[in-house]
Amino acid sequence: MTRNTAILLIDCPDRKGLVSGISTFLYDHGANIIHADQHRDNHLSLFFMRVEWSLDDFDLDEEEFRRRFEPLAQRFGLRWRLEYPSEPRVVAIFVSKYQHCLADLLHRHQTGELPCRLGLVVSNHEDARPLAGFYGVPFHHVPVEAKNKAGAEAAQLSLLQEHGVDLVVLARYMQILSPAFVARYPRRIINVHHSFLPAFTGARPYHAAFERGVKLIGATSHYVTEALDEGPIIEQDVARVSHRQDLEDFLQLGRDLERVVLARAVRWHLERRVLCYANKTVVFV
User: Fold this and answer.
1) Residue 115 near residue 2 (C-beta atoms within 8 A)
2) What pLDDT is recorded for position 263?
3) Closest CA to 114 of 123, 104, 124, 127
4) Band of residue 134 on the pLDDT scale cut at 50, 70, 90
5) CA separation for the pair 137, 153 (Å, rounded)
6) What is the mean pLDDT of residues 17-35?
7) How far apart are CA 12 and CA 227, in angstroms?
8) Among all residues, which ones are annotated catalytic?
9) What pLDDT, on the 0 to 100 scale, is given for residue 1?
């Protein structure tokens, strides 16, 4: 369920008076602030802020807000965006054969944990069709072959445009997206990688971790960029392992971690809690 609120996300060079100026502007127009959080990167001297307020007595619509807030933004050098959670984003889930993350996201959406509309499930295999159908989400099979990846991506992009998709979630989608595809959805593609990045990149990280004899395994959710597995990290988690676990144990523990970190990353993105900078993120939770 969504509330009748607005969210302002800000990043800018740090300076005195930022919090006072922003909060005073909102107060002067009837805002009742219900959440406010901020962070300062001491190394880069950057300021980050997320503020959410009730619209019940607020006297500015979106157009008027942008017009009146812009002078303040220019004075402080703000990079900012205004969001309305009552306008749910449309999400597409891409999946291959492993369905554990897909099943988790579909269930969380059905129980109201993910404030969005699931537009479609896209897969390069038919395996997930029954699961998507069970939850009433349209399923599209788009085969991907080495000789025709460009054609497959063109079909996928057409589907995303047709459904008005705002966010693409790669729920163990075992294909590498082209730079052109990624450029169409900057900071709007979330992937789950089955390792604690930056360790063990590539296709078989649990196997590599098992062979290395690690004592912790992990999973990572991150935004997708042109550089494979190197986008801004949103969430990570780990589980302790020992010599007593075999490879199958690693795989099972890893699947549990993948479900959790992907769901958190998707929810935080949908709740407008993530700001990106310097290939990193600030996550206001």
Assistant:
1) yes
2) 98
3) 104
4) very high
5) 21
6) 97
7) 26
8) 229
9) 52
pTM of the model: 0.94
Q: Which residues contact 81 (CB under 8 A, 6 or more apart)?
A: 8, 9
From CA 174, how far away is CA 95, in angstroms rounded?
7
d(CA 95, CA 123): 5
> Distance (Å, rounded) from C-alpha 200 to C-alpha 218?
10
The encoded tokens of residue 171 equal 């729920």
pLDDT band at 201 (very low <50, low <70, confident <90, very high): confident
Q: What is the mean pLDDT of residues 204-228?
A: 92
According to the 3-state scheme, what is the secondary structure of the chain?
Answer: CCCCEEEEEEEEECCCCHHHHHHHHHHHCCCEEEEEEEEEECCCCEEEEEEEEECCCCCCCHHHHHHHHHHHHHHHCCEEEEECCCCCEEEEEEECCCCHHHHHHHHHHHCCCCCEEEEEEEECCCCCHHHHHHCCCCEEECCCCHHHHHHHHHHHHHHHHHCCCCEEEECCCCCCCCHHHHHHCCCCEEEEECCCCCCCCCCCHHHHHHHHCCCEEEEEEEECCCCCCCCCEEEEEEEECCCCCCHHHHHHHHHHHHHHHHHHHHHHHHCCCEEEECCEEEECC
pLDDT score recorded for residue 121: 98
d(CA 117, CA 101) in angstroms, rounded, equals: 17
Rounded to an integer, the average pLDDT of 139-167 is 96
